Predict the 3D structure of the following.
Amino acid sequence: MIHTASFSVREEAPDAGTCVIAVEGEADMTTAVKFNESFFSAARSGIRSVVADLSNVNFIDTTMLNALVVGHRRMSRDHGRFAVVCSGPRVTRVLEITGLGQILSVFGTREDALAHVRQSSG
């Protein structure tokens, strides 16, 4: 039996200067590629407030973790803000174990993450 990863990556623009990239399902290499496409498209268009919403992710691998670090570094370099929404215990635990919870701005709700990127960039 062949297992096909189930995921979706959706972009939302709650306001002109902000992009939310919502990831659902399994955040693996295929998902990371789609996330990076969305992220870099937003960054090239001048967006400086990005939220990665992982609240509906049930699995995350190192390629997606790397995509989050790249997003964080790019926004820092461009004087923007990057925040992660994470409410599931599995993904939260991975961020804790890897130490990324100390590097990335991680929030339990999208509203808190949006407030952070808007406050910090304004």
